[in-house]
Amino acid sequence: GYDIPWEIRLAPDSSLWVTERYGRFTRYDLATGDIDTLLDRSGSIYASGEAGMLGFAFGPGFSGTGSSTDSVFLVYCFIQNNTIYERLSVFQYDGDDLINETILLDTLPASSIHNGSRVHFLDDGTLLLTTGEKGTPFLAQDFYSLGGKVLRLNPDGTIPADNPFPGSYVYSLGH
Fold first, then answer.
1. Would you say 26 and 42 are in contact if contact means Cβ atoms under 8 Å apart?
2. How far apart are the first and last CA of the chain?
3. Rounded to an integer, what distance in angstroms lies between the CA atom of residue 43 and that of residue 116?
4. Kind of pairing, strands 5-10 and 83-93?
5. Do 59 and 73 contact (CB within 8 A), yes or no?
6. Is residue 124 within a helix (H) or strand (E), and if so which, with residue range?
7. pLDDT tens digits for 47-98?
8. Of 163, 17, 6, 2, which is closest to residue 86 (Cα–Cα)?
9. Confidence band for 175, pLDDT divided at 50, 70 and 90
10. Distances (CA, A) of 70 to 10, 79, 84, 89, 91
């Protein structure tokens, strides 16, 4: 019953959390087979080709109980002024739904192909986000574009002081 699942992660309660390219984010209970929709953006995201609702990660301290530390970092595509972009947001999990979206990075380069969008926390608590070059290879080498890069940021969206390029989210380029 899934429509192009993109990211699947095992939660602390042994349920599977799944993003679907066309905009649904669900929780699958392995014991019962129940599927609960945590977030449905199917009417508001841009989903075409390889674009849509993409990668996510559980925030540090995620328990899955709906506690105040239960945050989920999610990447999705949207269209604004006829241009496709990608956004990294953090949501609070209240035990039933993903609520209180806070946008961390907005208007990242995106298109209908090559959007990257894997999200991973490092042991030091910083977040890595892969971005695609949107089918335009030179963007990966363009330091001033955030496309085709691995970005590193703090969970609040700020740039870590020890990033390789001071004042830049760019952690590595040329991807």
1. no
2. 33
3. 22
4. unpaired
5. yes
6. none
7. 999 999 999 999 999 999 999 999 999 999 999 999 999 999 999 999 999 9
8. 6
9. confident
10. 14, 28, 29, 14, 9
